């Protein structure tokens, strides 16, 4: 599987870019999976639901299944968060995995950057960032794309990973 990351600070446009890239790249006939890092606790089920009750009772893993989809939840319960490489091994084979977050890992990335939040560019100090998708003009030593030019960004990523 080929892996490419989308990084940036909060409100930089990462999730919107991820969504548009999945649509664009799958529309070109490639299979794509996504992996998103969360910096906080999150839940995919809710109090009162059977799966929540199973987890709350102490189950290490809960697998939900229906005709439409299945989901496997694993409770870490105080252990270290698994590294990106371990999580990638749990995915079914696809042409491309787009990773949102994990900005400190060594995989190739593009940075989503919006001027308004006032955050610094990550790319200036990170050589794993091969390009920046921005809502403002930037002068850098690597390609800069319009944040909304999804087709050009997809072309760049697909070329970078050899697809």
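-> sequence recovered:
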């Amino acid at each position: 599987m080929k892996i490419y990351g989308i990084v940036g600070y909060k409100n930089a446009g990462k999730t919107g870019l991820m969504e548009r890239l999945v649509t664009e790249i799958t529309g070109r006939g490639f299979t794509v999976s996504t992996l998103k890092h969360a910096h906080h606790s999150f839940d995919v089920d809710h109090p009162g639901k059977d799966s929540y009750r199973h987890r709350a009772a102490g189950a290490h893993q809960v697998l939900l299944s229906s005709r439409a989809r299945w989901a496997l939840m694993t409770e870490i319960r105080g252990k270290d968060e698994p590294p990106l490489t371990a999580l990638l091994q749990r995915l079914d084979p696809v042409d491309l995995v787009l990773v949102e977050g994990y900005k400190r890992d060594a995989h190739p990335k593009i940075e989503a950057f919006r001027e308004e939040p006032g955050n610094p560019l990550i790319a200036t100090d990170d050589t794993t960032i091969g390009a920046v998708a921005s809502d403002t003009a930037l002068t850098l030593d690597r390609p800069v794309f319009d944040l909304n030019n999804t087709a050009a960004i997809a072309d760049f990523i697909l070329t970078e990973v050899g697809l």
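The beta strands are 2-7, 32-36, 61-65, 70-74, 96-100, 109-113, 129-134, 144-146.
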